[in-house]
């Protein structure tokens, strides 16, 4: 699949944003992280900013963005529509929570309820995003049990790493949250490795024989229906060389997981301001790494239409 | 509405005979020609005279070499929307632009509702949908919905453009939901198959497999020739035959 | 459905729904949009097929074109090109106005001129030629469907130098057929699709008669008849064959002789058929060294004789009551003679034609050959069919049924485009005739006006060329011996293309492919003006493109072009336009009148003759004129007889006027339908002023359906022959005798042996002796015979893709999307042996040069053969294509490396790279090797040519096409 930047950025940014939002909703709502206007303001601002930036980016993928509002109508069948509905709906408790938690400096009561609802909304939204991909049967690498948990784990992971950086930045670092984010990064790493391993060993029953109905033997492409690349090939015929892909996987492992693990571990031992710097760096580096991971998520996904083209 | 109709009255579709298709591209351009002025007009062509020409087409013909232990065959393979019974391209659509008609099973796009998110094309395993970058919406085969019921065409012309054009009669059209229909009978008789049945989209269109290198192939049970048994060999035989 | 369904696609599974009322879906879809304001029924010109089309006009534009269901050629279907006619019509490559060259030839620098200036330039030039030496005008046309006009124009002008493109197209098939059975494959005959059970296809993937063949193949498939294809490439029609035989190029003749060998040996030939319809029993003189050796024994009236084996005396070969011998040796008047059939048996029973002897050279297993021979015999003799229709033969014998042998064959380009193609074509006809399958139920059938006598008259005109004097006939015709050749006393050719000379005696279609070289070399003489129409001679219609281009632009010592003046008419800015001095812009086929005439190449069906017209269905939006009308005006301005009245005024207003009023012989004109003042005559009759309207009212064509008893055995069917005489197809209702033994060829041989009045130059004698064999034989294609086969181990072939066959596809925005780069297809095993993989760039090298292209591996090809799609490669600056178009950057033209001459013979003479009998261009003789190119050479084709300048006021081609959006806008605005 063509790794369009708009979609790569969209899923990465909203994943991190909703992860952060959910954590703020729960931890803020239950006062696990302290009340602090600027912490709250920046935290909520960052979460919502990532979400809004991601959603805006996603409209860059649309042919007719002015009609985007129509996407809220088909929630009964479409995961994309559900995502739209969930993402927008989540703004209601998130807004209330933000007002209560940040501006009124209150927690408990309706603010806690709003915080919890925000977290629920965020989780649901990330699930719908994951399901958009997980539900696509023509793409075996996505249509797997790894996709949905992957989206949830990476959302929580990036969100927690950012939250940790935020707390560290405000000098309110929490060992528990640091440990939590470190564990999530390790989980994410493991999950990604498992996903790759699963995908590499994937035996896809759909092949050129079933695609053409020509049973038995080999079916080899002789000529395409057109000489130049068409929409199908540009959108779904993206090819990445094995060598290139292996290199990018290494970069992903390094930048999205290994470096953040190292930096987060270092945060345990480093004094201020180095701990803060390490945590901030971990969040930034990981976000960049996750862009690579998401790029690969698309680039390595093979659509069945490529079977018709012998790709 | 992108939820699928609970049941469709008819299952209109095409039957494509891979045994007969010579790959002449007649159906391809007949489709282009009708539809570029039809229901989804235009079928935009970008860079039509340049090095990166890329147009919207509803029907494409590939060619393959199919090799089995019985031999090899070149197969020309027309590919277009299969008007599936459970088309995920419809259910994934967030706006209701993509829909399956309850009355005849045709999968269509309501262009005015399409936001051009392209997800439907991702959801279609068959590559049946092509995006018109100029208009910003997805386009696809309409099964010539603006021909098959068109009061402005002579009744005999109310078939999809590709079926009317096909010079080798490799394309057939009808109600595949009716087991008594001519197309259903043809599919039964010729062992028509679904494409990618394992994905569960339940395509309406069927493909009739090539007969060459199968027991269905036309053959002549000819005994080997034996030299004539006549005195004087062949010339002797000629004389004998003429004297008879 | 009301009434019985019309058209080819009318099986129950192809009809409209039983109830075509739109269901109440409620989705707002307009299921009944208005399609057209009017429908014009005319004839397609996207290729040579000439299908009937319905052009739907909406708001003055072409909305849609579909097949005419009533039309005898296509019966409602339409091919990939036909549906793309819109893009041809609205092509940005279309010329706009007459052009006069301003820059050097080949640069593309022109200025626009008015038609009046164009006419005066042309008239002045041509009239000077006509006053002095008319043959200094060479007039050659390409994909011309008006040859009865263009040929007649040349004849009235007085130049013998006329032909269309048949010489480099498929004249071997035409000549091979016409000299043997009085008909031909091409589109002049067709298998009996409804009855045949075994169809053999030689060297055809797509060709003339394209939709009829496709419709026919569909019928065979529906009936379960067996299709066997003989072709080095498994594409197109060959893809759907039940058996594909991947023969080595140029060896089809050997393969056919092996089949004949098997059939003869087994006694599986139709002796009755041979006796009734062929010259198998005619006696041939066998007196070595005599002046009549090898000629037929004739009586005093010139009738061939046979030997009555009962009466034991010579009898007329056409004596219906005789009992002719087919074998033996007889003495008449002290001269030994044998029946033709004895010679056939002697030759083909020879073990050198046994399957085992030819298998390796053909690349076909001997068992496969034996199997096919057995199948042919089985179907022909064990599955005979009999139609319960009584008919009467020429001799008055009544037959209660029509008997048929359901084996049919079709052959074209793959046979034709070799230097041994004429004899191979004759070999296939011999096979058909031995099996008794020509014009019988289930066999190969003639389309009227064929069959004609073999060969048909008349002879080519041009023996005397005088100023201001028309020729005494048409420039193209059929020679019967050396006396008919167009050569002077010294044996020098009269024609610029050397047709009907010792180089190419049976050149029935001329040799357009030699004209540029000969005119450049002044061999046999210099010309003044080369006038061409619709033929891309500076590119894909020439062999040896690079040198051809150089010859077009070459100067003599004094700064003049060696070919002094070139007039060219084309509708598009093709690669040839920039080489013209004067360009006459043509219209498209939707803007003009044409006639598809029985005098030319009709659209008949085996069940009856037909012809058709084109008429303008849209108005030209530019200053262009149909070439035929231009030619008629030019004829009038030159004062050519037949083009002016006695008072010197133009006889015809335009081509439409000519179509209606011209009479070639009294009562016979371009169109056969609705003749006579009141339009009630058919075939013969006075001109009918209302004729074109009658055609338009009938859907653009006229077609006559034969009575049941006229449909078969046309070569001997009295009812048919009477009809053919009345229609003017044949001069007299006499039987057409198939010439298994071709006496005209033997006459040339005798001349080579020194007999007769017109003798070949010494240097040509061996060649004439060898190739003018009266019985078909096989020889190695010329290039293969001379090149080092170790060095050039591969055959290289080209074919046009189906969606561009005989079309001008590259400027067509739709068709070029399907193919804008051609690959060289190489068999897997061959590629592996050369260390090549898919997508590699290679040099394709022949003895004539090298060209670079990208390869694609393939299984379905003869292993020793590489091939590519032809005429995809284009020159930068032509056809309205942008500079980055794949056609001029990655596509390649194999023509660059096909020589236009043979290697020098022992005397140092180089002949045209053509069949020695007919002059057919031997495109497919090419031998090559392929070599992987260096890494830095990959990705672009070579040789490259300078980009042409664009003509004045040429609008750059658009970056986007939204054809059809306007119709939708109009519909939606109307709602």
Topology of helices and strands:
The complex is a heterotrimer of chains A (311), B (244) and C (975).
Chain A: H1 5-29, H2 37-59, H3 79-103, H4 110-134, H5 147-169, H6 175-200, H7 208-212, E1 218-223, H8 231-236, H9 242-269, H10 274-299, H11 305-309
Chain B: E1 12-17, H1 26-35, E2 45-46, E3 54-55, E4 59-68, E5 71-80, H2 88-91, E6 98-100, E7 107-109, H3 119-123, E8 129-132, E9 137-140, H4 145-148, H5 161-165, E10 171-175, H6 182-190, E11 206-208, H7 233-243
Parallel strand pairs in B: 1-11
Antiparallel strand pairs in B: 1-10, 2-3, 4-5, 6-7, 8-9
Chain C: E1 38-43, E2 52-58, E3 61-67, H1 85-89, E4 99-101, E5 110-112, H2 115-132, E6 137-141, H3 147-157, E7 162-163, H4 166-169, H5 171-178, E8 189-191, E9 198-202, H6 210-223, E10 226-230, E11 243-245, H7 252-265, H8 271-277, E12 283-285, E13 305-308, E14 313-316, E15 330-332, E16 335-339, H9 340-348, H10 355-362, H11 366-382, E17 385-387, E18 391-392, E19 398-399, E20 402-404, E21 407-411, H12 413-416, H13 421-434, E22 444-446, H14 512-521, E23 529-533, H15 545-553, E24 565-570, E25 582-585, E26 594-596, E27 610-614, H16 627-638, H17 655-661, H18 691-697, E28 701-703, H19 718-727, H20 743-752, H21 762-771, H22 782-786, E29 794-799, H23 815-818, E30 823-827, H24 828-834, E31 841-846, E32 849-858, E33 865-869, H25 886-889, E34 927-932, E35 960-961, H26 965-974
Parallel strand pairs in C: 6-7, 6-23, 9-10, 9-21, 10-11, 23-24, 24-25, 29-33, 30-32
Antiparallel strand pairs in C: 1-2, 2-3, 4-5, 4-25, 8-22, 12-16, 13-14, 15-16, 17-20, 18-19, 26-27, 27-28, 29-34, 30-33, 31-32, 31-34
Helix pairs in contact in C: 2-16, 3-16, 5-13, 7-10, 7-11, 7-13, 10-11, 20-21
